[in-house]
Design brief:
Elements lengths: L3 H9 L7 H7 L6 H9 L10 H73 L3 H5 L4 H16 L1 H19 L4 H4 L7 H32 L7 H38 L3 H34 L4 H8 L1
C-alpha cells in the first residue's frame, strides 16, 4: 500500500503514446497550409484559382508589420513577464509554506477537472462503450486519458516545478522554517530537522497531489456520465481530500504531537527533531491510505482485478 504512491507517480510519466487507442484519443492531424488558409478564409474546398501568390503577399505584409509593431511588443512583454516571474518567485521563497499548497491544489483541481471531463465527453459522443470494448478495457481507457491529460499540462507543470524547486531550496537553507515553527529551535539539530522536514513536505505534497488528482479524475467518470456533473464532483472530491489531509497535518504537527511530547516529558531537542519527522510520516500514511482506497474503488467500478491494476502501474 505504501509503495503505491511511488508506483503510480512514476507510471504517470510513462504514457503509452504509441498505443493505437492513446493516439486516437490525443493525436491531432497536422493540417496542410492550404487547409489552414481555407479554414481561415472560409473558402470552399475546391478553388478555381491558386492561393500561392496571395499567401506569399500576405506573408510579406505580415513580416513587415511584425518588424514594426510585433517585435517591440514582444520585447516589452518578455521584460514584463520576467519581472512578474521574479516577483512571483520571491513571493514563493518568502511564503512557500502557504503558496505551494495553494499552487498544488489549483494544479490538482485542473488535472481532475480536465481528465474526468474528457472521459465523460466520450459518453456524450456515444463512443465510451465502444472504447471500453477495446482490448485495453475501461480501465485502460481511463488510464490513458489521465496520463495523456497530465502530459498536456506542460506550461502549468513547468511553472509549478519551478515554484516547488524554489520552495525546497529556501526550506533547506532554513529560510522558511521559522515561518512555520514559531517556537525557536533549542539546538542546531532541531533547526536542521525542521528544514529537512519542510523541504520533504514540499516534495511529498507535489508527488501525492499528482497521484490523488489523477485517481479522482479516473474514478468519478465511472459513476457519472454528464460532463458538467463529472467535473463539479471531481473538483469537489479532490478539494475535500486535499483540505482533509492539510488539516490533519496541522492538527498532528501542532496539537497532537506537542501534547504527546508533554505527556511523555521528552527532552526539548528530541521533541523538536521528532515533531517534523513524525508529522510528515503521518501525512504520508494518511494519503497512502487515501490513494490505496481510491485505487481499489477504481478497480471495482471499472471491473478490473488486482492483477490488471498491478500490471498498469508495475
Amino acid at each position: 500500500m505504501f509503495m503505491l504512491t511511488w508506483q503510480f507517480w512514476l507510471a504517470l510519466r510513462r504514457p503509452q503514446t504509441q498505443h493505437p487507442v492513446y493516439r486516437r484519443l490525443f493525436a491531432r492531424r497536422r493540417r496542410t497550409r492550404r487547409e489552414i488558409v481555407e479554414s481561415l478564409l472560409e473558402l470552399p474546398a475546391e478553388l478555381p484559382f491558386d492561393l500561392s501568390p496571395l499567401v506569399r503577399s500576405g506573408w510579406r505584409f505580415f513580416r513587415a508589420v511584425a518588424l514594426v509593431f510585433v517585435l517591440p511588443a514582444m520585447i516589452v512583454f518578455t521584460y514584463l513577464a520576467t519581472v512578474i516571474f521574479i516577483m512571483a518567485a520571491s513571493l514563493v521563497a518568502i511564503f512557500s509554506p502557504l503558496v505551494l499548497p495553494v499552487v498544488n491544489t489549483f494544479f490538482g483541481v485542473s488535472v481532475a477537472l480536465d481528465a474526468s471531463g474528457k472521459i465523460a465527453e466520450e459518453y456524450d459522443r456515444n463512443t465510451y462503450e465502444v472504447l471500453g470494448a477495446s482490448p485495453v478495457g475501461r480501465l485502460g481507457i481511463h488510464w490513458m486519458y489521465v496520463t495523456g491529460t497530465y502530459q498536456q499540462q506542460g506550461t502549468a507543470r513547468l511553472g509549478r516545478n519551478g515554484f516547488t524547486i524554489i520552495g525546497i531550496i529556501t526550506a533547506l537553507v532554513g529560510f522558511t522554517s521559522s515561518f512555520v515553527f514559531t517556537i525557536p529551535a533549542p539546538d542546531l539539530s532541531v533547526e536542521i530537522a525542521r528544514a529537512a522536514g519542510l523541504a520533504a513536505f514540499f516534495a511529498l505534497d507535489y508527488i501525492q497531489t499528482d497521484v490523488i488528482s489523477n485517481l479522482v479524475g479516473m474514478l468519478i467518470p465511472a459513476y457519472l456520465t454528464s460532463q458538467t456533473n463529472t467535473r463539479l464532483i471531481a473538483g469537489g472530491v479532490f478539494i475535500a481530500l486535499q483540505a482533509t489531509s492539510y488539516l490533519a497535518l496541522l492538527l498532528i504537527a501542532f496539537v497532537v504531537l506537542p501534547l504527546l511530547f508533554a505527556l511523555l516529558d521528552l527532552n526539548a531537542v528530541v521533541a523538536g527533531i521528532a515533531q517534523p519527522l513524525l508529522a510528515l510520516a503521518a501525512l504520508y500514511a494518511l494519503r497512502a491510505v487515501i490513494i490505496a482506497r481510491l485505487w481499489r474503488l477504481i478497480g471495482r467500478e471499472l471491473g478490473a482485478d488486482a492483477r490488471e491494476l498491478t500490471a498498469l502501474v508495475g
